[in-house]
């Protein structure tokens, strides 16, 4: 269920266990922790570098810069615990404004509980009510868990691309 709050385009989505809403500045450490946990096969520019960048302050600045109008990547909070455990949402796919890309990432300690699947369903519902026609998702061929989540919510592989850091599977879902 999507709810427009009083802060312009700020969106809050609810599922049985989860609340998807904008990131808060004091949650920057959660974002950085996810970066530190990334698989070594993830391209270097998406991991913490040897100098420690992005730093906590840089994550904080990015959250500040995105508020209050950024509705693309929502923090996922467990309703019972009240803690942010990852993100799920829509980003630019490069295929036009009506066909964004689904993206998600969660802290390792919560993997395997169905959270990515549950959050993705909420974002799909939101995408439908927002009038989007199709979603894209690209995933490394080695990323079994992500491929499984995408399959569970109805994405179909349409292409594969050889990229500098491996084979990227291109998947789509018609809404
Ligand atoms: C991908 C990711 C978001 C999944 O989060 P999650 O909350 O654990 O996902 P879910 O519990 O909803 O579903 C995971 C599914 O993958 C399966 N899975 C997980 N690891 C697996 C593995 N190594 N081999 C086979 N299946 C695997 C699980 O069994 C589950 O499927 P099932 O419900 O049929 O049993 C999480 O692993 C993550 O944050 N990864 C790093 C970031 C990332 O890869 N993001 C996506 C980029 S495209």
From TrEMBL:
<dbReference type="InterPro" id="IPR051531">
    <property type="entry name" value="N-acetyltransferase"/>
</dbReference>
<dbReference type="GO" id="GO:0016747">
    <property type="term" value="F:acyltransferase activity, transferring groups other than amino-acyl groups"/>
</dbReference>
<feature type="domain" description="N-acetyltransferase">
    <location>
        <begin position="18"/>
        <end position="175"/>
    </location>
</feature>
<dbReference type="Pfam" id="PF13302">
    <property type="entry name" value="Acetyltransf_3"/>
</dbReference>
<protein>
    <submittedName>
        <fullName>GNAT family N-acetyltransferase</fullName>
    </submittedName>
</protein>
<dbReference type="InterPro" id="IPR000182">
    <property type="entry name" value="GNAT_dom"/>
</dbReference>
